[in-house]
Amino acid sequence: MEKKSPEKRSALHILTGAGRCLVMAFVLFISVYPILWVFLSSFKKNPGGLALPAEWVFDGYITIFTKLSIQTYFGNSIFVTVISTVISVLVVAMSAARMEFKLKGLVTLMFTTTLFIPSISISFPIYRLLGDLGLKDTRGGLIFIYSGLGIAVTFFIIRSYFLTIPKEMEEAARIDGCG
Questions:
Q1: 60 pLDDT more than 80
Q2: In terms of C-beta distances under 8 Å and separation of at least 24 residues, what long-range contacts does 63-70 make, across chains too?
Q3: pTM (global) more than 0.90
């Protein structure tokens, strides 16, 4: 087998690096172009194209912030997201820990099987359940849904992280008095 000279290796390395940069630039362009187009079009009287607007129009933004009170909607979204995330992480952290208990395999199996159920297939039963519980059209209902639907994925993310922590660190903490 013939060894490549350092000049050939460096030229090949440069070409592969340039190819990777071109692919990343292409993916970046495809990802950013629609966002940039929508953003620039929002300031035009006649939307279209990527050119800067001939005349900047702010009517849409003024309407959104004065008549539609979008701040309330953003506040609701942030509130529901933060509370749902905290609930999911707290519930999952307790079950994803490396502690051993009787039904740990069953808990893991239940979380695994919920990953295979499409959310749309349980939307009607969830809607009825929220109606029966009096949580329809409430923040509590949204928090309940988002916490429950996100638990399976959160479980596997946190569990895989917990498995990277060395057992020796847990043993040292236990010796130092950690319960």
A1: yes
A2: none
A3: no
The letter for the amino acid at 30 is I
Q: Which helix (H) or strand (E) holds 158?
A: helix 139-164
Q: What is the DSSP letter of 103?
A: T
Q: What is the pLDDT of residue 127?
A: 92
* 82-122 pLDDT per residue, tens: 999 999 888 888 777 777 778 888 888 888 888 888 888 98
Report how far apart, in Å, the C-alpha atoms of 161 and of each of 149, 155, 171 are: 20, 10, 17
- Report residue 163 CA to chain centroid gap: 21
Backbone angles phi, psi at 65, to 5 degrees: -85, -20
**16: its two tokens:** 């592969």
Backbone dihedral angles phi then psi of residue 110, each to the nearest 5 degrees = -65, -45
- End-to-end C-alpha distance for the chain, whole angstroms: 60
For the beta carbon of residue 119, count every other beta carbon within 10 angstroms: 10
Provide the 10 A C-beta neighbour count for residue 96: 23
DSSP one-letter code for 119: G
Q: How far apart are CA 98 and CA 91, in angstroms?
A: 14
- Return the beta strands (E) in the chain as ranges: none
